[in-house]
Specification:
The protein is 0% helix and 42% strand. By secondary structure, the chain is an all-beta fold. Strands 4-3-2-1-5 form a five-stranded antiparallel sheet, with no helix packed on it. 10% of the residues are buried.
């Protein structure tokens, strides 16, 4: 399989699609729906919200987690 491209900025993640390597609760495909902006503008974005396509369940995760190819694959695979 080809190597995963490392994400360097969370600002490009909005509306991006992801596949969970190990799905749980029949949730395999996700979309980034929101960037969690810190209260202080000079702080970097650390968290995003992802929504499961199947159940519409929303969860917050650290955006850097998406760089771990043992957990997430970019796109809907």
């Amino acid at each position: 399989m080809n190597s995963a491209k490392r994400i360097t900025t969370p600002k490009k993640l909005l509306k991006s699609k992801w596949t969970a390597v190990t799905p749980s609760h029949k949730e395999k495909h996700f979309m980034v729906t929101k960037l969690i902006v810190p209260e202080q503008a000079e702080q970097a974005i650390e968290y995003i919200e992802i929504e499961a396509v199947h159940s519409k369940r929303v969860q917050q995760i650290a955006w850097q987690t998406l760089n771990d190819s043992s957990i997430w694959l970019q796109g809907w695979v």
